[in-house]
Amino acid sequence: MKIITDSLESQLKQVSQRTAGLTDPKIEASVREIIENVQAKGDQALRDYEKKFDNVDLTSFRLSDQELTDALDSIDDDLREALEVAKANITSFHKKEIEYGFVDSEKPGVMRGQKVISIATVGLYVPGGTAAYPSSVLMNAIPAKLAGVNRLVMVTPPQKDGINKAVLAAAKLAGVDDVFQIGGAQAIAALAYGTESVPRVDKIFGPGNVFVATAKKMVFGQVAIDMIAGPSEIGVIADDSAKPAQVAADLLSQAEHDKRSRPILVTDSINLANAVSDEVEKQLQTLPREEIARAAVEDQGFIAVLPKVDDMFTLMNAIAPEHLEIQLPNPTDYLAQIKNAGSVFLGRYASEPLGDYVAGPNHILPTSGTARFSSPVGVYDFVKRTQFIQYTSDALAKEADYITKLARVEGLEGHARAIEAREEK
Ligand SMILES: NC(=O)c1ccc[n+]([C@@H]2O[C@H](COP(=O)([O-])OP(=O)(O)OC[C@H]3O[C@@H](n4cnc5c(N)ncnc54)[C@H](O)[C@@H]3O)[C@@H](O)[C@H]2O)c1
Ligand SMILES: N[C@H](CO)Cc1c[nH]c[nH+]1
Ligand SMILES: [Zn+2]
Q1: Is residue 94 among the annotated active site residues?
Q2: What is the CA radius of gyration of the chain?
Q3: Comparing 3-19+230-360 with 25-225, is the CATH topology the same?
Q4: Is 363 marked within a binding site?
Q5: pLDDT single digits (tens) 159-199
Q6: What is the pLDDT of residue 22?
Q7: CB-ligand 2 contact for 135 (6 Å cutoff)
Q8: Is there an atom of ligand 2 within 6 Å of 133 CB?
Q9: What's the predicted TM-score (pTM) here?
Q10: Which of ligand 2's atoms lies nearest the C-alpha of 232?
Q11: If you average pLDDT over every residue of the chain, what do you get?
């Protein structure tokens, strides 16, 4: 792994030069055409695209409830138990995120408040192929259900030998209402505009390839979207007290997701840097997804050596990694120094995959530096808020002059008159 010993200033400059671009005019043009065709021709366009891109002839898109039940019954007991444990922990964590709104009636004659309303219909994209993660189905569906979403519609590309059973089992366990076998940009268009078979949703969640991500960007406005998820990232801050084999294993756990994943170690110890670099090479040689992980390590990965602890945090905050492990003695002491990270893993035993599967906090997290301004997926993403106001005649009379004053300053006589129409004569 590349070891960088440059000054903090030079490393910060390198961070700010990295960009996470997602624009390819050719892909944009073909995605635009797919969206327009789905809008115009509905189910027929979905059938045509599924034949073209996935080589599957579909007569219907929706899986029956029996097919989901059969999938759940078909998985082995150990997998069922693991999914159940994950579900219980995700549920107990996300219950704490539920918002109830508030009523404020502190001022006489005035009632004001905020009401939290669940989004009615939500779409969930689950990628096809090897990136079909049952754990991600739980991470989206459980907060949606806790938020009170009425209808949760999952879409996933059809597969020649059937859709991944564990994904369908997770969907059933988490209470997904409908599963449609459609993928790519056409699935996103169907969710955004609706077709004869697929209901139009209010918000679309879930990762996917560049066609899916581009389509999500294009339908934003017609519907809401969760985020544009980039490749997985892990940042580790560690000193000499960390075990090189554990640090290397954690870096590789995210490197194996994608050739563009970013494994990063920041340390104050050149000894640890060298030992981790050696360990990464050793462990890569026996990793089944070696090719993917090696590309990520070699192209995106690096080890930064900075002598001061404060500088290590300054650099990591600038990187704003999706996952951040603190492998220093007394790791909780450093929570206050962390400004930008999707999810933080404190101490030796909080290895990143713990959070991917069973700890309970969400594993759908901001990537590509967006932890500077966004948060993990949570119950709050499946709700919206509205406000309410009620005044008595006396309470309005007390503030009427302020309203008419402000209205007339803004040149809005109609506003002022609406208030004056309430004056008791
Ligand atoms: N960030 C995360 O949490 C996370 C998690 C899982 C997966 N992912 C990402 O999801 C992606 C999965 O990609 P995938 O391709 O395996 O599955 P996918 O479901 O995203 O895309 C498959 C679909 O792409 C469409 N498609 C394929 N070629 C096309 C073409 N030439 N023109 C138009 N459409 C075309 C097809 O309709 C196909 O069904 C990966 O990039 C992976 O990194 C990210
Ligand atoms: N680490 C991924 C998010 O970056 C989530 C995941 C799913 N399965 C395993 N890992
Ligand atoms: Zn992972």
Answers
A1: no
A2: 25
A3: yes
A4: no
A5: 988 999 999 999 999 999 999 999 999 999 999 999 999 99
A6: 56
A7: yes
A8: yes
A9: 0.95
A10: 4
A11: 96
Integer Cα distance of 359 and 353 in angstroms: 9
Q: Which atom of ligand 1 is nearest to the CA of 129?
A: 16
Catalytic residue chosen out of the listed positions 323, 325, 352, 363: 323
pLDDT score at 160 = 86
Dihedral angle over CA of 328, 355, 228, 169, nearest 10? 170
What is the distance between the alpha carbons of residues 214 and 33, in angstroms, rounded to a whole number? Answer: 12
* 67 has binding-site annotation: no
CB 247 less than 6 A from any atom of ligand 1:
no
CATH of domain 3-19+230-360: 3.40.50.1980
Ligand 2, pocket-test mutation among 135, 227, 234, 324, most atoms within 8 A of CB? 135
Give pLDDT tens digits for 79-128. Answer: 999 999 999 999 999 999 999 999 999 999 999 999 999 999 999 999 98
Which residue reads 């070891």 in tokens? 3
Give domain 25-225's CATH architecture. Answer: 3-Layer(aba) Sandwich (3.40)
Evaluate whether 341 touches 361 at the Cβ level (below 8 Å).
no
By the CB criterion, residues less than 5 angstroms from ion ligand 3 are 356
> Residues of 120-157 as b/e, b for ≥16 C-beta within 10 angstroms?
ebbbbbbbbeeebbbbbbbbbbbbbbbbebebbbbbbb
Ligand 1 neighbourhood includes 208 CB (under 6 angstroms): yes
99 is in an annotated binding site: no
pLDDT at 212 over 80: yes
Domain residues of the chain, as ranges? 3-19+230-360, 25-225, 394-425
Each residue's pLDDT tens digit, 10-51: 999 988 766 545 568 999 999 999 999 999 999 999 999 999
Residue 21 has what pLDDT?
52
Among this protein's residues, is 322 annotated catalytic? yes
